[in-house]
Amino acid sequence: MLKIIITGAAGRMGRRLVANIALDNDLQLVGATEYPGSEFIGQDAGSVAGVGELNVPILEDMDLAIKNADAIVDFSTGNVLNHVRLAVENDVAIVIGTTALSEQDLEEINTLAQQGGRIVLSTNYSVGVNLLFYLSELTARILPEDFDIEVIEAHHNKKKDAPSGTAMTLAQILCAARKLSIDEDLRHGRVGIVGARNTQEIGVHSVRGGDIVGDHTVMFASEGERIELIHRASSRDTFARGALRAARYITDQQEGGRIYSMQDVLSGMLAAATEE
């Protein structure tokens, strides 16, 4: 049985992760944390998630649970680096779903991975979105340059960062496929007299409203025709199930040495589809 700690256990993703663990006979919740001062400190993580008591109180840190854990799943918005350090120190695997990470954060996480940390880091743990990544790269390589590329993402009105981490991953994939610069060739929205569009740019646009879980569209538009690759998430459970799948995968790895991605987690599935 895989023993898991959930950080940010009272958040939108944290609750769905706790609920999915409670429904899985091969998983056990052994720890749950929230930020210091949270109103949920001391409450049972299962009760907060709406699945009944699991006898796992939400605490401010994971020190009591880390010795009994196999993996941490971290979708929190703070202390991610501390969580990664604690995981590496205790030889516990960690799955990171936080998207608001700086370049300095990523460099330190990479250093910790090289020191043996078993780490999965992805901007999106949905199986469907990772297929979207794959298909977007393939399409960008196949189509001629007269197909303009635009990325549109939509999320709920509580989301703090824009564009979404998934949209930026798509932008990175598309820039690499077109041999464009992620720093120079992205156009984040348009306003005013911006001039005619050129083929050396990729548009990235963010929509915020209501309770949208997460929509992502990659549009390839040319004269007389348009191709759209679309993924719409209707439930956060798709991300929760993917993150738990990643937890199973990374705990099976004997050592770190690098940061693993969701593409690594799904590599067998993608390879089988390509061979067919």
Helix content: 25-40%
The low-confidence runs, each spanning 5 or more residues with pLDDT under 50, are none
Give the biggest beta sheet: 7 strands, parallel
Q: Report how far apart the termini are.
A: 34 Å
Q: Please give the CATH architecture of the largest domain.
A: 3-Layer(aba) Sandwich
Radius of gyration: 20 Å
- Mean pLDDT across residues: 92
Per DSSP, the total helix count is 9
Oligomer: single chain
Please provide the count of β strands: 12
- SSE ordering: EHEHEEHEHEHEHEEEEHEHH
CATH superfamily of the largest domain: NAD(P)-binding Rossmann-like Domain
Number of domains: 2
The global form is elongated
Widest β-sheet, arrangement of strands: 3-2-1-4-5-6-12
Proportion of beta-strand residues: 15-25%
Write up this protein:
The protein folds into two domains: 160 residues, Rossmann fold (3-Layer(aba) Sandwich); 107 residues, Dihydrodipicolinate Reductase, domain 2 (2-Layer Sandwich). The radius of gyration is 20 Å and the shape is elongated. With 276 residues, the protein is of the alpha/beta class. It has a seven-stranded parallel β-sheet with strand order 3-2-1-4-5-6-12, with helices on both faces. Helices cover 35% and strands 23% of the residues. Strand 10 and strand 11 form a beta hairpin. It is built from nine helices and twelve strands.
